[in-house]
Design goal:
Blueprint: H1 2-35, E1 48-54, H2 58-69, E2 76-83, H3 89-99, E3 103-108, H4 118-128, E4 133-138, E5 141-143, H5 148-153, E6 162-164, E7 167-169, H6 175-196, E8 208-211, H7 212-217, H8 233-239, E9 245-247, E10 255-257, H9 263-274, H10 282-307, H11 312-336, H12 345-366
Parallel strand pairs: 1-2, 1-4, 2-3, 6-9, 7-10
Antiparallel strand pairs: 4-8, 5-10, 6-8
Length: 375
């Protein structure tokens, strides 16, 4: 009996600790996103280069590129790096050239002796850019408004090198779409919240801006050139600091991407994105691992304590407190990031997502990395 009570007391202690850490993340990092007040959009018309890397994206270029080319901004260029495309992207882009003089195209021809990742195409675009301010998005992305460019660029001041934006996914029917949007939303709550708290660790290439001069001063992608993904978050992780990074996630600055339609494709995409995590700074790794680890610990200890009715009144109070905070913060975050339709599903996703992500991350560790390519 003594050993059993001692075990349950240890479990209860772990339950208290994990619950406290969970509440800390919600109130310190995630709530910061909800309470954040954007500065007024300044009248700043600095020239900017929008860079899009595309490989076999003729359908997406046809549908989404016009929304980038029709931004309400006086001085900008759009550089599309047509990277070894085997569809009719070249012809599609040629048609746009006749309509939009601020469109520029860089073609990368296929070479059987040279297989490269997206980072190489990104470098080609950066090299071709004529402006110091660079804004990145993807071929399957659509800005939410024609004020996207204006509002993002207005956040650049003399001391600002990075502007982190929000890139969500189009709303579709089905549970997978809800989970994809929930996943992108919670990741945004992390990287936006941590940036607000002075520890920027990543940005998403669907909506990210930084200075060309900084890129070359920092020797480009440097030691991460061999990594098949992470041209966006690894550059931010290596170079962004507390005083030179800001965020911009007003609704008019969101971008929306085409979500994958199958679980297999989503797992493949997620595995590619997770490859970058091992290259983060040690402090960032710790902060990112701590949240899902304590979430699993919280739910496991909750089950053990309730099944043994050990101090169950206190267990339910603590569980209820976390649930209330989680529900309020998540609901408000859905409104700020314009992610309707997730609602009650987020409560179930909260339980299973660390297990899913953990399994995918472990799979990356146990399997050999794929070829150095991005499509």
């Amino acid at each position: 009996m003594f050993h059993e009570n001692l075990f349950l007391l240890i479990v209860f202690s772990l339950f208290l600790l994990s619950g406290a850490i969970q509440i800390f993340y919600y109130l310190y990092y995630y709530l910061a996103v909800i309470l954040y007040k954007h500065p007024e959009v300044k009248v700043s018309k600095n020239p900017v280069s929008v860079i899009i890397c595309a490989r076999n994206e003729s359908v997406n270029l046809t549908e989404f590129l016009p929304s980038v080319l029709k931004q309400d901004y006086p001085d900008y260029e759009v550089i599309v790096v047509n990277d070894c495309s085997e569809d009719n992207s070249y012809d599609i882009l040629g048609g746009f050239l006749k309509q939009y003089p601020h469109l520029r195209i860089s073609n990368v021809n296929k070479d059987s002796k040279f297989t490269h990742n997206k980072r190489f195409a990104q470098f080609i675009g950066i090299k071709a850019a004529k402006n110091d301010l660079l804004l990145f998005t993807d071929a399957d992305c659509q800005p939410e408004s024609d004020k996207w460019l204006d509002t993002i660029v207005s956040q650049f001041e003399d001391h600002i090198n990075f502007v982190l934006g929000y890139g969500g996914y189009f709303k579709r029917i089905g549970l997978l779409n809800r989970y994809i949007r929930y996943d992108s939303m919670t990741i945004a709550m992390q990287y936006l919240g941590m940036a607000i708290r002075g520890v920027p660790y990543m940005g998403v290439g669907r909506n990210l801006a930084y200075r060309r001069s900084l890129f070359f001063n920092k020797k480009g992608f440097g030691s991460h050139n061999h990594v098949i993904s992470g041209d966006d978050d690894l550059f931010v992780n290596s170079n962004a600091g507390k005083n030179d990074t800001t965020i911009e996630f007003r609704k008019e600055t969101h971008t929306r991407s085409v979500p994958v339609a199958s679980v297999t494709e989503w797992v493949k995409q997620k595995k590619r994105h997770m490859i970058t995590a091992r290259y983060y700074k040690p402090g960032d790794k710790l902060r990112l691992i701590m949240e899902p680890f304590t979430r699993v610990l919280f739910y496991v200890s909750l089950i053990i304590l309730l099944s043994n009715l050990f101090l169950w009144q206190y267990v339910l109070i603590i569980c209820g407190l976390r649930l209330i905070i989680q529900t309020i913060v998540t609901t408000l975050a859905q409104k700020r990031l314009n992610e309707p339709g997730i609602g009650v599903f987020s409560l179930f996703f909260d339980i299973f997502s660390p297990v899913i992500n953990g399994a995918i991350y472990l799979s990356n560790i146990l399997t050999r990395p794929g070829k150095n390519k991005w499509k």
